[in-house]
Structures are given as structure tokens and as C-alpha cells.
Amino acid sequence: MAGDKGYDTKDCVADLRQRKVAPHVTRNTSGRRSAIDGRTTRHVGYAVSQRIRKRVEEIFGWMKTVGGFRRTRYRGLERTQLAGYLVATAYNLVRMVRLVSSATAA
After folding, report:
1. CA atoms lying within 13 Å on the CB side of residue 60
2. What is the rounded CA–CA span in Å between residue 1 and residue 23?
3. Which of 50, 62, 58 lies closest to 25, judged by CA?
4. How confident is the model at residue 18 (pLDDT cuts 50, 70, 90)?
């Protein structure tokens, strides 16, 4: 399971290990000791997980800045979800254009 620094707690990491799930959460070393130790960070999968996580965070950053989804304009869960789907669709269209243009240039 991957997660941000908020999930780097003794209870969360112990619960994941008890369930036989690798805790690929980001280490929180600001002012305290991290619950993630060398058993997890020494594996190649942990580094890969952290790189993939960065890619996912970039999408949410785009949705907030370019897509204007930092603060919703709508009331209610259904309308806000629809707005989120539309912003994510716009991101996918922008990404598809970049992929197609790079494929034709090669």
C-alpha cells in the first residue's frame, strides 16, 4: 500500500504488516522517528512505488492549478464529482495530444 507521510505511524505500519501488506508510505522524519525501517526501504519496489506516486501527485497538481479544481464551484457531492470527472477528462485529452504528437514526430 502506498501513501503519504501521514500514514507513517506505528499503528498503521504494524497493521499493514500484520495483514501481510508492504507499507510503501513516504518516510516522515521531521522531528520524529519514522515507522518505516530498512526492511521496506531496501527493496527496489519501494523506490519504484515512490516514483509512481510522484506521477500521480503531478496529475492532482495539474487538476488544482490548470483545471481550477483547487476550490469547487458547486454544491453537493454529485455535482462536485461530475466537475472532477470533467477536469480529469480534460487532463486525459491534453495527455493524449502530447502522446500522439510525440509519436508522429518520431
Report:
1. 6
2. 5
3. 50
4. very high
Q: Where are the beta strands (DSSP E) in the chain?
A: 2-3, 24-25
| Distances, alpha carbon 91 to alpha carbons 13, 14, 64, 105, in Å | 33, 37, 11, 21
This prediction's pTM: 0.62
d(CA 24, CA 27): 9
CA distance linking residue 6 with residue 55, whole number of Å: 19
pLDDT in tens, 46-98: 888 888 888 888 998 999 999 988 888 889 999 999 999 999 999 999 999 98
